[in-house]
Amino acid sequence: MTEPGRLISLGQDEDLIDAQALLGVLRECHEVRERRRAGTTHVTRQALWSFWELPRLPRPIISNKYPRPYPWSPGARNVYLTTGRTSGLVLEHVKPLNILLDTMIFSAGGWTVIDLINYLETYMAGAVITKAEDDALQAAGVGLGPLDQNDPDLWARYRTASLEPESYAPL
């Protein structure tokens, strides 16, 4: 079975520096969220992408976003290979990003930098799919959340949406 795509380490020192910066943002957003929710998810999403995800996407990447080594759905591979374009593609988090962000914001106050790195290494996984496949996840009712947070099958949402992760492969 295809495993979801994983981010790479930039080395212990760089990972610690970037995780410390991200944890600072998460802690501040936790404080804001205690008073009001507005804006914390957006700020955290941007910090996660800038401080952690983008620098750690395995190379080569296409259009500064889509890693060739990640699993690509057959539809996503077809779109890119026939058009040479990334329009209509989605870099999808196997565990929904809103759940990752909420967990990180909620837990930030009690986490160390190592706790954050361990969480990111465990749950940051992705695939490249088409917008239509992303819509299928939404239509199946699993677009924003997993069927069961504790399900060991990382691809359960995809199977529920009649997507076949066994057919996913790097580009």
Protein described:
The chain is mainly α. The protein contains seven helices and five strands. The chain has helices at residues 12-35, 40-56, 74-83, 97-107, 113-123, 131-139, 156-160, and strands at residues 5-6, 61-62, 66-67, 89-93, 125-130. A three-stranded antiparallel beta sheet has the order 1-5-4. It has a two-stranded antiparallel ribbon with strand order 2-3. Helix 1 packs across helix 5 (113-123). The relative contact order is 0.19. The model has no long low-confidence stretch (mean pLDDT 92).
Gap between N and C termini, in Å?
16 Å
> What is the residue-mean pLDDT, rounded to a whole number?
92
Largest sheet strand order: 1-5-4
Counting H and I runs of at least 4 residues, what is the number of helices? 7
Number of domains: 1
Evaluate the radius of gyration.
Answer: 16 Å
Q: Largest sheet, if any?
A: 3 strands, antiparallel
What's the helical proportion of residues?
A: 40-55%
What share of residues are in beta strands?
Answer: 5-15%
**Net shape:** globular
Low-confidence residue ranges: none
- Count all strands and give the number: 5
Class per helix and strand makeup: mainly alpha
H/E series? EHHEEHEHHEHH
Question: Helices, strands, pairings?
Answer:
Layout: E1 5-6, H1 12-35, H2 40-56, E2 61-62, E3 66-67, H3 74-83, E4 89-93, H4 97-107, H5 113-123, E5 125-130, H6 131-139, H7 156-160
Antiparallel strand pairs: 1-5, 2-3, 4-5
Helix pairs in contact: 1-2, 1-4, 1-5, 2-4
